[in-house]
Design a protein that fits this description.
about 60 residues, binds zinc ion
Length: about 60
C-alpha cells in the first residue's frame, strides 16, 4: 500500500518518484495532474489524520 510510504524527500513524489519542480506547491500541482498520486495521497493523509491533528491545513 502506498499509504505506508516513507516521505523523506520533498523533492520527489513519494507515490511515483517523479522529481518535482518545486517542493510543496509543485507537489500540489503534481497531484492535480496525476489522479493515481492524488488517490495515494488522500489514502496516506486519511491514514495519518488521526495521529497528527492539524498536521495538514488547506
Ligand atoms: Zn506522483
Amino acid at each position: 500500500m502506498a499509504a505506508t510510504t516513507t516521505w523523506n524527500d520533498p523533492n520527489h513524489c513519494p507515490f511515483c518518484e517523479t522529481e518535482l519542480e518545486t517542493p510543496g506547491a509543485g507537489f500540489v500541482d503534481h497531484l492535480g495532474q496525476n489522479p493515481d498520486c492524488e488517490d495515494g495521497f488522500e489514502a496516506w493523509r486519511s491514514n495519518v489524520a488521526g495521529d497528527v491533528p492539524g498536521g495538514w491545513s488547506g
